[in-house]
């Protein structure tokens, strides 16, 4: 961690990531992706005997379900929606003229039925709700998705498009709480095996606006969210590489996911930031994967 060059520049120079000209939007090298998929395999070994099913989402989710999630109420500053050209020949001419003149051609773009996924577990809930009441044991799902958040940054660990791998527990309050506590322990075990400095701390989400501060404070008071912090871009403010969340019955109510007795399900999720964990490995073990410590190589390459 001793070079004066920024970590992002080191990653570009060693061609582990490739710049695009837009902060937070990077091409990943084969080497980077290999570490991502090794970590995913490693993470799956911790929960594979418990999951009831696995899903991978495309980067977009139905706009209607995105609306139901309440994301625009809490985090409008981070959301991304997909818009498209829906006009005819005449509109097309106008659009091309607009582009040629260097004017804003995006004003005519129209909303589609697709929103970018803000957190990997969001598209799961409406799928579960459509199946009717949950089975006795609830659901325990392994997920992966690209996520979008409009937070451009020079910190390589804060991307606009990144992947989360999650385990999600949907069931009773006890099931959701027990799940979250188990994963707080397992997360630390994972970080130990990867030889990464780490610390679990209570956290809150960046709720928007004046009312948002109160919501963040209340989230902390109720100890709903914890993060696994690892120094990546700075030692003073370490980065959240995992998060452990209990949503109470908020999502159960929003999407109408029911237990067998008809009451709303409680949900909890653990999210692994795949790019962040990969970056933490490069940061602490060096840019040359072949030279990583034996224990780390054993954990990831077997
Ligand atoms: P932060 O406080 O750093 O913004 P967060 O609280 O927004 O993180 P969560 O919403 O809990 O993070 O998302 C789950 C996981 O996704 C995080 O633990 C992290 O590993 C990853 N993540 C979140 N935002 C980003 C981002 N902009 N770029 C890369 N990974 C991210
Ligand atoms: Zn989640
Ligand atoms: Mg955030």
Care to describe what's here?
The protein is an alpha+beta fold and 302 residues long. The protein has 2 domains: 7-80 and 118-301, Bira Bifunctional Protein, Domain 2 (BirA Bifunctional Protein, domain 2); 82-116, no CATH class. The protein has helices at residues 7-13, 30-47, 63-69, 71-74, 89-100, 124-130, 173-193, 209-221, 250-255, 274-285, 294-301; strands at 17-18, 27-28, 53-56, 60-62, 81-84, 110-116, 139-148, 161-171, 199-203, 225-230, 239-246, 266-273. The strands form 3 sheets. It has a 7-stranded mixed β-sheet with strand order 3-7-8-12-11-10-9. The protein has a 3-stranded antiparallel β-sheet with strand order 4-6-5. Strands 1-2 form a two-stranded antiparallel sheet. Helix 2 (30-47) packs across helix 10 (274-285). The longest helix is centred in the middle third of the chain and has 21 residues, at 173-193. It is globular, with a radius of gyration of 21 Å. Zinc ion binds next to strand 12. Residues 119, 149, 151, 157-159, 162, 164, 205, 239-243, 271, 273, 275-276 line the site of adenosine-5'-triphosphate (ATP).
């Amino acid at each position: 961690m001793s070079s004066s060059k920024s970590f992002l520049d080191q990653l570009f120079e060693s061609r582990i990531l490739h710049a695009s000209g837009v902060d937070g939007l990077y091409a990943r090298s084969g080497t980077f992706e290999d570490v991502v998929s090794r970590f995913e395999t490693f993470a799956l070994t911790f929960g594979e005997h418990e999951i009831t099913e696995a899903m991978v989402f495309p980067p977009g989710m139905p706009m209607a379900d995105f609306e139901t999630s309440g994301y625009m109420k809490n985090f409008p500053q981070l959301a991304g929606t997909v818009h498209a050209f829906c006009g005819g020949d005449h509109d097309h001419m106008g659009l091309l003229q607009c582009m040629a003149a260097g004017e804003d051609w995006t004003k005519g773009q129209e909303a589609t039925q697709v929103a970018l996924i803000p957190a990997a577990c969001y598209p799961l809930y409406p799928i579960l709700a459509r199946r009717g009441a949950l089975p006795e044991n609830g659901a325990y799902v392994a997920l992966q998705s690209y996520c979008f958040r409009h937070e451009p940054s020079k910190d390589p660990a804060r991307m606009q498009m990144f992947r989360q791998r999650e385990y999600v527990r949907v069931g009773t309050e006890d099931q959701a709480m027990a799940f979250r506590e188990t994963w707080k322990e397992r997360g630390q075990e994972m970080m130990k095996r990867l030889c990464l400095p780490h610390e679990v701390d209570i956290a809150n989400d960046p709720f928007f606006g004046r009312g948002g501060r109160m919501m963040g404070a209340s989230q902390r008071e109720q100890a709903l969210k914890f993060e696994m912090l690892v120094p990546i871009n700075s030692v003073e403010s370490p980065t959240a590489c995992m998060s452990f969340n209990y949503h109470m019955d908020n999502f159960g109510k929003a999407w109408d996911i029911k237990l067998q007795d008809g009451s709303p399900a409680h949900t909890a999720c653990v999210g692994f930031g795949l790019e962040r964990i990969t970056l933490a490995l490069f940061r602490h073990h060096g840019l040359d994967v072949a030279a990583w410590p034996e224990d780390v190589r054993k954990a990831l390459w077997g």
